[in-house]
Design goal:
heterotrimer; A alpha+beta; B alpha+beta; C alpha+beta; B: alpha+beta; Ubiquitin-like (UB roll); DNA polymerase, domain 1; 2 domains; five-stranded mixed β-sheet; C: alpha+beta; Uridine Diphospho-n-acetylenolpyruvylglucosamine Reductase, domain 3; five-stranded antiparallel β-sheet; three-stranded parallel β-sheet; 32% helix
């Protein structure tokens, strides 16, 4: 019997329990004797803690702070600068200083309100001045490219904050299980949490257990931040010795958790006499917020996307993360790439316009081909089908005709197209040297196979796609392959659920483990199959110089957006979005299409023109879902999405990454459409009505 | 404390509680009905939606006092109905569920809308969902699911 | 804090004698403004009178050319009622979300006195009046007098809204425009209602109201009166002048939802654009 194409969609395995409300999310968990924890936060952007005055605490109520930490007072992540509880200084408004814990929530809230902290206020730092991380790479001879240039063109671009705005706020429930710190929570990365707690508690490997609950949306927001709440909770558990529920309210979540980095990107192109870009200089600045955390890695992914889907021979890229006394910024779907892709896509257009060329022809001439060198001198080894993709996108959107028609400024309509790529998996040798992913399949005597990995289903579907994949390789019915929620007691560290690596990397290892298991299958026996990540031999990456193959594979996309802008209110009406993606091979087509729509909601609509977040003196002005505007069903345009197969030899069934790809190209597509509609050059995203008004009136 | 009597999923109950409790908390904490979720606590996201006298409301903005004498249906009750089955099937077939935190609220919104308007246009569906935020799906698959349920479930609403 | 759940309207008025109380109807403002930590009771700062279930006040009745809207008639009821003025229906369709419209009331929005409340904007344009009862008196005041500033009303302790009276008039032209942060479920950055009635080619009634651009809704009867009696063509020719006439009253603020510059520009654009549409 011929097997069905793996892309053919099946029922998502967790749909029913989620539709019915039966799935127990973190806040739905109740335990006997449960206590509640509430944070007391800094009201100032920067200051020294002079004195903490506590109210008198009734029996059973405690305050937990830095003095209670048995191990390191640092949240272990990439850059270890973030304290679990600040000891002497606070660095942003909303920074949690201590916890009040007790059995009655009203009492806990009352006590938390009664805590008085005296500060010596210090001068806060804001803006793009105080660099804490700087990175650089170059390729070819950029100096010469600029010296010999016929002309140069330079522009600056900006993007703002973006909040992940998952509908389920951050949260954990924790308890001690025969001395083991057991943390159940809404998380993307069970082992990040575990490792952070181990360091803070100075505990042994077996003393910490982390279990994923169903996750109500994450988008990067539950990548590193939960390591902070988890370590605080573990410290509290040690002191209180009772189960504790620790759930953020929406406003706490908005003011205190990591956001997408605001960016400023300066681009400069050196053109030869035929208007070809012979050199590119870029500087990427990110506002890191109060603590660096993952910011350096975010910066690096951003910088690596400097040439996007274009080949430029001579490149010079610098980047800085600036420390400011604002909420720390961190992971958000796309991880630095949306900021950079916005800049380069706008820039390519602006350069073409500056030299009087048709933007489409200009782009096509610089388009990447297989065998070209990447921005860091690696090689695009695999076939690139960007040509077919953009032709398809033009055809379904009627791009060229509309582009021409909307040149008439009276229409106030526009159409924009972006091309983009996204590197799949960790940057450089991260998979090999930092993550070292391991996966396991366990077969019971009755033939049931369990998938044991730490990858988290946060809506994007691995609970379904991993089972589908493993069942397909093993030729078993789906029901015979199980994938329980990851629990670090049973699952090996397959790495975090980030970087569009889940299917390509973890899924790839699972497919190999399944193949091993199939080949060694013995009826009636308990068996295990393990796989460990091995970097493809051809990958060479020099981390210090940022040279070589930054990613083993790239996914590609094209977005086309059509808009009409109101002359009266400057509001944008998105008429339609068309997209074409190369993600290797879809493991489940409907799941991929769901990622596409969701990514566009956040990229085209959200970061592109709708979502505004700003701070004033370090205080975020949009602190709840009333003021921080995310798209409703009425704001979301109709979409048409196409997936083009282009299997990647090392991915499972040819699959590459998908989650971030669907977001990263959205902002420039909508910005370019607005740019055409209003006849002004757009240099900032989101392209809000306020900004459009300014452009129309001031040029 | 006040005695508040209402019908919950067809069963008449009386509670002696503080009237200024949010009904969402009463459902989740006192009655163990956790299908309604708290996403924002200020009536913006719709994750806490329930049917009050057959119509969608945000239970996070409803003080217990206001529920006195009324009829409440939560997702726990709604899931026993034929209409639910039809919507569930359509949500599954159209891929309308991702993380699932908004989904029970979406089901309540769909029921409330279809009860008023059994054959809505896409535009009407969008407006019917305007108080239910979803951050995963971009809504189009949810809209398709409701359209499908309305079509295949003709006569149910 | 006391929590009072009256069984009758009369009983509610008696309780109001005791001083300043929160009067909670749909709760969509009060429940947000006083919210406490989740799973704990709402932290009202005053004694609270829960009137949502006073069915006596849940009515919409037409009497000749007057619509009587009971204090507990929800936006949802108004949207369905055949006698609700079309301008108000246009506004309700874009107001908040279905779940909020089900419980929120015009009376509640008047009590909350937000300059950005769209329903209140329509009441200004339609010359609505507010009927206030106390245990021993009744008075009726125009909506402009009922609201005195952001969050401030002319209501005395002991008074509550019994009903809103909306004169039913026909307009030949009506436009409601809500400019929010998104297309639905948003608080207005600016809102606008324009209405006009013609006698042949001549304007006999012109109404222009703007929300969220000053401490209360902006409606200037003296400016409107100046342009009555003109033909539409004359009016259009003077659109710039009308725009400028409103400029001194458009004094918006910068806040988390928009900028003063944008609000001013858009408010005046909306006036000018509406005049051109006549």
């Amino acid at each position: 019997m011929k097997k069905q194409d793996i892309s053919r969609s099946i029922e998502k395995v967790d749909s029913r329990e989620k539709i019915s409300g039966a799935a127990a999310f973190t806040s739905d968990i109740k335990l006997d004797g449960m206590h509640y924890a509430k944070s007391v936060r800094s009201p100032i952007p920067r200051g020294r803690i002079k004195q903490v005055n506590l109210p008198s605490l009734p029996k059973g109520y405690v305050v937990v702070d830095h003095r209670d930490i048995p191990g390191e007072n640092v949240v272990k992540m990439i850059h270890d600068d973030w304290p679990v509880f600040p000891k002497t200084e606070v660095a942003y408004i909303g920074e949690p200083i201590l916890l009040v814990v007790g059995p009655d929530k009203e009492k806990v809230a009352e006590l938390a309100d009664a805590v008085e902290i005296e500060f010596e206020e210090l001068e806060p730092t804001f803006g793009f001045t105080n660099s804490a991380i700087d990175l650089h790479y170059d390729k070819g001879d950029p100096d010469r490219a600029f010296e010999t240039a016929a002309r140069t063109v330079s522009y600056e671009y900006e993007t703002g904050y973006q909040d992940q705005a998952y509908i389920e706020p951050q949260g954990f429930v924790g308890y001690l299980d025969e001395g083991t710190y057991t943390l159940v929570g809404s998380i993307q990365c069970p082992y990040y949490v575990k490792n952070a707690v181990l360091a803070t508690m100075a505990a042994d490997e077996d003393d910490v257990r982390v279990i994923q609950a169903p996750v109500g949306g994450a988008f990067g927001g539950k990548e590193e931040f939960p390591s902070l709440t988890a370590t605080q909770l573990a410290v509290a558990l040690r002191k209180v010795q009772k189960p504790i529920k620790f759930i953020y309210e929406r406003e706490e979540d908005m003011i205190a958790t990591t956001k997408r980095h605001p960016s400023k990107v300066r681009m400069e192109a050196a053109l030869d006499e035929n208007n070809n870009i012979q050199g590119l200089r870029a500087h990427v600045g990110l506002d890191g917020g109060a603590y660096l955390g993952l910011s350096g890695v975010v910066l690096s992914r951003g910088m690596l996307a400097a040439t996007n889907a274009y080949t430029i021979d001579n490149v010079w890229v610098d980047g800085d993360v600036y420390v400011t006394n604002t909420v720390p910024n961190g992971a958000f779907r796309g991880f630095g790439a949306p900021q950079m892709i916005f800049a380069i896509e706008m820039f390519i257009h602006h350069v073409a316009k500056e030299v009087g060329e048709d933007t489409y022809t200009f782009r096509t001439r610089h388009q990447v081909s297989q065998g070209d060198l990447t921005s860091t001198g690696g090689v695009y080894r695999d076939p690139i089908i960007l040509d077919e993709m953009s032709k398809k996108a033009e055809e379904i959107s009627d791009y060229h005709r509309k582009r021409k028609e909307y040149e008439d400024p009276d229409t106030f309509k526009g159409i924009g197209m972006s091309w983009f790529l996204h590197g799949c998996g960790f940057t450089g040798s991260g998979e090999q040297e930092k993550i070292k992913a391991r996966v396991k399949l366990k077969k019971d005597a009755d033939g049931t196979v369990r998938i044991l990995v730490a990858a988290v289903d946060m809506g994007q579907g691995p609970k379904t796609t991993f089972r589908k994949l493993v069942a397909d390789v093993l030729d078993l019915p789906l029901e015979q392959v199980l994938f329980p929620y990851p629990d670090t007691r049973y699952v090996p560290d397959s790495g975090p659920t980030v970087a569009s690596r889940t299917m390509m990397v973890v899924g790839g290892l699972l497919a190999r483990a399944a193949k091993d298991l199939k080949e060694s299958w013995r009826e009636g026996e308990v068996q295990e199959a393990m796989q460990r990540y091995k970097q493809p031999d051809y990958i060479e990456w020099d981390q210090d110089r940022m040279k070589g193959d930054a990613y083993p594979a790239y996914s590609w996309g094209v977005n086309v957006v059509e808009v009409e802008v109101s002359k009266v209110t400057y509001e944008v009406d998105i008429k339609h979005v068309w997209s074409v993606y190369d993600l290797g091979k879809a493991i489940d087509e409907r799941i991929v299409l769901g990622q596409a729509d969701g990514g566009q909601a956040q990229g085209v609509v959200g970061l592109g023109y709708l979502e505004v977040m700003e701070h004033e003196g370090g205080a975020l002005k949009q602190k709840n879902l009333t003021d921080y505007i995310i798209p409703t069903a009425v704001d979301m345009p109709k979409t048409e999405n196409h997936i083009m197969d282009n299997p990647y030899p090392l991915g499972p069934y040819g699959a590459k990454g998908v989650g971030e790809l669907t977001l990263v190209g959205g902002p420039p597509a909508v910005a370019l459409a607005i740019e055409q509609a209003i006849g002004r050059r757009v240099r900032k995203a989101p392209v809000t009505p306020e900004y459009i008004m300014e452009l129309i009136h001031n040029g | 404390m006040a005695d508040i009597t209402f019908t919950l999923n067809g069963e008449r109950i009386t509670l002696r509680e503080e009237p200024n409790l949010r009904f969402l908390d009463v459902l989740r904490e006192k009655l163990n009905h956790t299908g309604a979720k708290e996403g924002c606590g200020e009536g913006e996201c719709g994750a806490c939606a329930i049917l009050l006298d057959g119509h969608i409301v945000n239970s996070c903005l409803l003080p217990l006092a206001s529920v006195d004498g009324r009829d409440v249906v939560t997702i726990e009750g709604y899931r026993m109905t034929e209409r639910y089955q039809m919507l569930e099937k359509a949500f599954i077939e159209e891929g309308a569920v991702q993380c699932g935190i908004c989904t029970p609220g979406m089901m309540i919104a769909a029921e409330s809308m279809l009860r008023e308007n059994p054959d809505p246009t896409d535009e009407e569906i969008r407006h019917g969902l305007a108080g239910n935020l979803c951050r995963c799906t971009g809504y189009n698959m949810i809209i398709a699911a409701i359209r499908r349920a309305a079509k295949e479930g003709e006569g149910l609403w | 804090m006391r929590h009072i759940i009256p069984k009758t309207y009369r009983e509610a008025l008696e309780h109001l004698k005791s001083g300043s109380l929160h009067i909670l109807a749909g709760g969509t403002d009060l429940m947000v403004q006083n919210r406490a930590w989740s799973e704990t009771p709402v932290a009202f700062k005053k004694d609270t009178l829960y009137v949502y279930n006073l069915e006596e006040l849940r009515y919409i009745e037409r009497e000749g050319d007057m619509l009587h809207v009971g204090a507990l008639a929800s936006y949802d009821m108004l949207e369905r009622h055949p006698d609700t003025p079309s301008a108000l229906k246009r506004c309700i369709a874009l107001l908040a979300s279905p779940g909020l419209r089900r419980v929120a009331t015009l009376a509640g929005n008047i009590g909350n006195a937000s300059p950005a409340a769209d329903g209140v904007l329509v009441l200004y344009a339609l010359d609505a009046r507010v009927v206030l009862d106390s245990a021993d008196a009744t008075r009726e005041i125009p909506i402009e007098e009922a609201i005195t500033g952001p969050g401030r009303t002319a209501f005395e302790d002991g008074e509550m809204i019994r009903e809103i009276r909306i004169p039913l008039e026909d307009f030949d032209s009506e436009r409601f425009k809500k400019v929010g942060g998104r297309k639905a479920d948003a608080i207005s950055k600016v809102s606008f209602l324009g209405a006009a009635a013609f006698d042949g080619d001549v304007i006999k009634d012109l109404r222009l109201a703007l929300g969220a651009v000053n401490t209360t809704v902006v409606r200037r009867r003296e400016i409107e009166a100046q342009y009555q009696g003109l033909t539409a063509a004359d009016l259009k020719a003077r659109s710039q002048e009308i725009r400028e006439a409103y400029a001194p009253y458009v004094r918006p603020i910068d806040d988390q939802r928009s900028t003063a510059t944008y609000r001013r520009q858009v408010a005046l654009n909306l006036i000018e654009d509406y005049i051109h549409s006549l």
